[in-house]
Every structure is written in C-alpha cells, then in structure tokens.
Amino acid sequence: MAPTKKTDRKAVVDVAAWTFNVVTSVGVIIVNKALMATYGFSYELLKFILFANFSIVGMNVSLMWNSVGFYQIAKLSMIPVSCFLEVVMDKIRYSRDTKLSIVVVLLGVGVCTVTDVSVNTKGFIAAFIAVWSTSLQQYYVLHLQRRYNLSSFNLLGHTAPAQAGTLLLLGPFLDYWLTNKRVDAYSYNLASVMFIILSCTIAVGTNLSQFICIGRFTAVSFQVLGHMKTIFVLIMGFIFFGREGLNLHVVLGMIIAVAGMIWYGRASSKPGGKERRSLSLPTSRQQNHGGFSDSNEDEGKV
C-alpha cells in the first residue's frame, strides 16, 4: 500500500504542477493581450511611469556617483539618444543643417560645463540608465499626447498620482540601499520641511512646463533649446555669486551654444529640416520616370 500511496501522491503533485504552469502561462498571455489591446492606454501609461521613475532615480544617482564633468556629458548625450528614438520610432529625417546645428550646441555647452571628467563603473551604469530612461520618458510625453489627444494637464493628471505613489513606496528602501541612510532618521525642522514643500511645488511646475513644451515641439527640440537654461544658470551664477568661474573658454562656449541654438531653430523650421519620412515615397519614385524632382529633394536632406 505504501508504494501505491507514494505513486498516487506523486501523480497528484505532477498534475497540480502542470495545471499551475498552464493556468499561469495562459493567464499572463491573456492578461497582457487585454492590456495591450483593450486597455492599451493603461499599458502605455505603465511604461511611461516606469521610464519616468527610472529617470528621476537615475539622474540623482548619476550626479551622486559621478563627477560633475561626466554628469554633464551624460546630459548632453540625451540629444543624440532622443534623435535616435525619433528616427527609429517616428521615422523622422533630419537635414544636414539641423544635424550640424545640434553638434554646435553640444560643443558649446560642453565647453561651458565639462571640466573634470572621471568615470567609474557604477557611475557609468547609473548615467546609462538615466540617459535612456529620460530620453524614453520625454519621447513618450509627446507620443501619448498626440496618440490619445491629451492636453498637458490631462497627461500630468494621469501620470503624477501613480508616479508619486510608486516613489513614495519604493523611495525610502531605494534611498537606504544607495546611501545607507534612512529617511526617517533625518533630523527634520521647520526650515527643511518648508524647503521640501517648496521643492515639490517647483517640481510640479517643472513637470507641467516640460509636458507643455514637448507637446508643442518635440523631445529633441526640448533638449536642444533646453540647454539655454544651462547658459542662464551660468550667467545668473556669475551675477549673484561672483565671477570666479568666468573665464574665456566659458564665455566662448556660451557664444557657440547660443549660435547653435539659433541655427537649430532656423534649420529645423525650414521645409525638409525635420520631417517624417513618407511611406509613399517609393511609389512616387516609380511613377516619376525623369526622377529629377525626387533626386533634387533628396540632395538637400541627409
């Protein structure tokens, strides 16, 4: 009787294991399909919140683990990454002048801000995550607004509560893991609480303005023209906190960066400066036997 009972028990366990595997495998496929098909917006919101949270944590950790110089290089690299995302996902095509103007902006801001550059493994990983998550988050700001016809306020209203909730739950544990310090162990006082509230209030305004700007322009334009903020910060620092850091190469970098931004604004607004590739282009080429209009148009674009 004992061997029979063991055999029966083994059979029951085997059936239960296979049933559990089949139910969960089929279930996850059905649920994911429902998410993507029936609840596509909710699924895309989850992706956006994931990218946004990684962006917030990644940028702060990158600043904590890297030198200021490498942190600035990482921020500058968001522009080519955003260009790559637009080219791959939206089939955007940039003219040669638009590409060159972006290079000029990168060069100018780099001359202004990049000083000491030291790299370590964990800092590089944090910067890599920060750059890609921030670029994807900014890409999805425009994507969600256009695809679902949302205003900046609507998108922020959909995403902010979920972001706040997940960061509130995971933030203290992540903070302790990264810094070995507990949030509740901090000695809070009236001044620190007021500054925390002020910081959160300004952050809401910053997020809203980001959504508005990217919704009206694109993630690349937001990144390129956004470096004007870096120039303003440097100028205001020189005005209010002395002229310690003001030297020839910083002034030269500012001039180059501003010139690049002006060039980018003009180049990207011209016809063909930045446009979506047409899917009907091969058909029109076949119909145009002379081929002169298409070839001339392509020569002005890269």
From TrEMBL:
InterPro entries reported in the protein's UniProt record: Sugar_P_trans_dom, TPT_transporter
Keyword check for Transmembrane helix:
yes
Report keywords, A-Z: Membrane, Transmembrane, Transmembrane helix
Q: What subcellular compartments does it reside in?
A: Membrane
Annotated Polar residues bias: 280-294
Keyword Lipid metabolism listed: no
Q: Ranges for the Sugar phosphate transporter domain?
A: 35-264
Region annotated Disordered, chain positions: 270-302
Task: Indicate the principal place this protein occupies in or around the cell.
Answer: membrane
Q: Which Pfam families match?
A: TPT
Membrane-crossing ranges are 15-36, 48-65, 100-117, 123-141, 153-174, 186-205, 217-240, 246-264
Membrane topology summary: Multi-pass membrane protein
Q: Which PANTHER family match?
A: SOLUTE CARRIER FAMILY 35
What is the protein's given name?
A: Sugar phosphate transporter domain-containing protein
